[in-house]
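FORM 7B - TANDEM STRUCTURE REPORT

SECTION 1: FIRST PROTEIN
SEQUENCE AND TOKENS:
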Amino acid sequence: MVVFIRKRRKIPVRASDIMITEVVTVKPDDPVTRAAKLMVENLIGSVLVVDDEGRLRGIVTERDIVYVVSEAWDPTKHRVWEIMTENPIVVRPDDDLLTVVRKMSETNVRHLPVVDEKGAPVGIISFRDVLDFLMSVLGLALGMALER
């Protein structure tokens, strides 16, 4: 009888390893146009809504902007607080990658703010960030396999 033993190694990939730290924020009373312009200027799909103390209060995504357009709202007159998702699902910097992916999958979101212990955003992870990381790992694994 032949027994194959596979080595299992944990690679401690944390939210802080793949998050984007240049967080783009708006205030609840900012006009919707400000949020939309920031998304276009920064080539991003969401902005975080923070209060005067810098704590996360919500998130505005491309889907929210589409809602404004579909309802024929004037984005110069409507405010971010009217369309933001309040108390968004978040992760902590030390959360592992599996936790991040599970939260995205279970809640059907594509953007997860990363917050510190005070509730202030320190980063954001998009589904694209997760995919880019996984593609890099896959590329390394394939490269190592081809070298053998």
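SECTION 2: SECOND PROTEIN
SEQUENCE AND TOKENS:
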Amino acid sequence: MSAKLLELLQSPEARQTKSDHLIANYIERNLAEMPFETAKSIAEGVGVSQMTVGRYLRRLGYEGLEDLKREMRKGAARTAWQVSGQWDRLQDDARDGRLLAGLIQQQIDDLGAIYNITLSAEWKQAVHELATAEEVYVAAWQNVRGVAQYFANQISYARPGVAFADGLNGTYSEILDGRCKNRCLVLMDVRRFASKARLLAEEAARSGVKVILVTDDSCIWAREIEATALIMPGAKGPLWDGAATSVALLDLLVANLVVEMGNSINARVDRLTELQDLFGDFEKE
């Protein structure tokens, strides 16, 4: 998606009415699927008429949806920063509160999208796989690595056999050696994507490991691999990609896993509490 198109979709001119906001947000959040969209499918996804979608696109300067798709194909992958030539405007927006207000509203919108993910068949499948696998591995790279490690630590309170795979052995053999027949890999990656993410996902699937892919709507291969894909809204603003959306989705996944496992987690939580007291890592209440 070109920087020009992104700027246009986020401009006040493109968001004059409630319908404008809905259509712009839909286009931004469904970039990976846009080549397969029609005016009808967009209208149904947004809850407006096809005529409204057509009028909106023409008002933005496009002859129709195919014209918009051509514009999207011209765009290169975005880097984490999108601020070149925008510092004066961003600083003005920050001073009068518009910048943070816009970022907060985006996070609110993203949380709404995450709620819809929790109602999907993919979400239910992911929770089931996390609850029933004999071993669960979590892998991530770059700036989402810390978020993934946090997730691995959290689900280890609910069930045993959880580990973060850092790949430092160069083989990911702990995931791929076939020693355990019921393994699950939670692979987390968002743009800019790690070069080994798809390779690991595909090799894990070939090895019989169930793959849960947590990614964003810029991932063009999420539907092309054998995996349960949880696709979040991607970063939209000009500033550094934040982790709020990712953390929210993973926290909800942990909560749902706890409920799914029910009373079976009680003994584990009690034992972990005993160990925490034994090694004195926490203050006495």
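SECTION 3: OBSERVATIONS ON SECOND PROTEIN
The domain at 115-279 is CATH 3.40.50.10490 (Rossmann fold).
Residues 98-118 form the longest helix (21 residues).

SECTION 4: SIGNATURE
Preparer initials: ____
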